[in-house]
Every structure is written in structure tokens, then in C-alpha cells.
Design goal:
Blueprint lengths: L3 E5 L3 H13 L3 E5 L2 H11 L3 E5 L1 E2 L2 E2 H11 L4 E5 L4 H9 L4 E4 L4 H19 L4 E4 L2 E4 L4 E4 L2 E2 L4 H12 L4 E3 H9 L7 H15 L9 E4 L3 E4 L6
Parallel strand pairs: 1-2, 1-3, 3-6, 6-7
Antiparallel strand pairs: 4-5, 8-9, 9-10, 10-11, 12-14, 13-14
The chain binds calcium ion.
The site of calcium ion has 5 residues, from strand 4.
Length: 230
């Protein structure tokens, strides 16, 4: 069945580009040009994914995301003209799954949409085993294997890698990761995170200076998911 994408964008040319793209790639879509209309359309159409512009005529797209998150786990990709890390970080912190900056390439947007939809489907499957390329996490035995060999991990390394695997293909901010893995009060301990990411990379990457699993999103955080270095 075709997935329904909800476009929330007031810029007519960007909106048109998205509509043409989605039509061509066999997605159904609905569009809203304001926060208020977006909420009404969301409630009446139950879309599968939202693409949300942050600068809307009747307010901030982040407020819309906050409202949606109170009632739904729908995948949300933020579209921002502002090449502003702070904006991106706060959108991710209020619950967006990913972001893309304008001007964007259609291929990149489609890749992110597919990855986000895949992750959403995975969430629905009740399983305690998760794989990402040659990595496999088994939640009940607390083992993570790489090419069928058990990794030797400290408890924090395990928690961090587990969090990455469960949130694959999603941009995660430093604060989110620190809060989820280390807990309240550790949100600003960037150095902890950097150190643990380095040791994890040494354990799972073929070449830790050119990581294929844990990618750095400069100034924002990390993104886990396997993409081959070319
Ligand atoms: Ca706008």
C-alpha cells in the first residue's frame, strides 16, 4: 500500500517540488501551509510520515512537532532553510526524527524518508533481536555480535551501542544520547560521549577514522546506520 506523506510547508515552490517528487516515487501526499491546518489534516488523515518546515506563517514548526508528539509517534522529518545547528538540535530535541536543510537534493530526501519509514516498521515488530549490517543485538541475552562474534563491551559501551542500534537511521543530538544512556544530569558531558564513541568505533569499525556505522553529524551529534565508505 502507498504510504501517505504529510507535507507542511508554506513556500509554494518547495511544496510543489515535494509534491512532484512524491507523486513520481509512488507516495500519496497531503499538504498544509500552516500550523493550524497541519494539525487538522494530521488528525483527519492519519499520515505515515510528516515533512515539516520550521518557519510557518502562524508560528514555529517546532511547536507543531511538540503538539504532535503528545499524541503520536509518527516519523517526522524537519525541513529547514536555516543552516542553523541550534534550530536543528532543538527540533530533534522536541521529537523530530531527522532533518534536511534547504536547498536539498531529492535523492537525499527520499533516502531519509525510506530509512525513517523502515525504522518505523521495525518498531512495530515485537522482537528482541535487531541487526544492522554485520552487527546483531540480542536484548534478552544482552549480547552484541559482529560477524557472529561476541563483542567484549563494558556496561556503558553496551548501553550506548544498543541505543544506537535501536535508533538507527536517526540523527541523535549529543544531549539526547547523554540523557538516554547516562541519565539526567549528564546532558552536557560531551567528553564522555566522545570518548565512548571512540572506543566503540575501535571495536566495530573496520577503520575507526572512516566510520561506516557511527557517523558524526558535525556540531549536532551522531547518526547510526551502515553506509559503506566509498
Ligand atoms: Ca517557511
Amino acid at each position: 500500500m502507498k504510504k501517505l506523506i504529510h507535507i507542511v510547508e508554506d513556500d509554494t515552490s518547495v511544496k510543489k517540488l515535494l509534491e512532484i517528487t512524491f507523486k513520481e516515487y509512488e507516495f500519496n501526499y497531503i499538504s498544509s501551509e500552516s500550523k493550524k491546518n497541519a494539525m487538522l489534516m494530521f488528525l483527519s488523515h492519519s499520515p505515515n510520515l510528516m515533512v515539516v518546515d520550521l518557519g510557518l506563517p502562524d508560528g514555529d514548526g517546532k511547536d507543531l512537532i511538540k503538539q504532535i508528539r503528545e499524541i503520536s509517534k509518527i516519523p517526522i522529518i524537519v525541513l529547514t532553510a536555516r543552516h542553523d545547528e541550534k534550530e536543528i538540535i532543538s527540533a530533534l530535541d522536541v521529537g523530530a526524527d531527522d532533518y534536511i536543510t534547504k536547498p536539498f537534493s531529492v535523492n537525499e530526501l527520499l533516502a531519509r524518508i525510506r530509512a525513517t519509514l523502515r525504522r518505523d516498521i521495525k518498531d512495530e515488530v515485537l522482537s528482541d533481536k535487531f541487526t544492522c549490517n554485520e552487527l546483531e543485538l540480542n536484548i534478552s541475552t544482552r549480547d552484541i555480535t559482529l560477524r557472529n562474534e561476541k563483542l567484549k563491551l563494558t556496561p556503558i559501551e553496551y548501553e550506548l551501542l544498543k541505543y544506537f542500534i535501536l535508533n538507527a537511521n536517526k540523527t541523535l543530538t549529543h544531549r539526547q544520547i547523554l540523557h538516554e544512556v547516562w541519565g539526567t544530569g549528564y546532558q552536557n558531558e560531551m567528553q564522555y560521549l566522545r570518548t565512548y564513541v571512540n572506543t566503540l568505533r575501535k571495536k566495530i569499525e573496520k577503520n575507526s577514522t572512516r566510520p561506516e556505522y557511527i557517523k558524526t553529524e558535525s556540531g549536532i551529534g551522531y547518526r547510526f546506520g551502515f553506509t559503506k565508505e566509498s
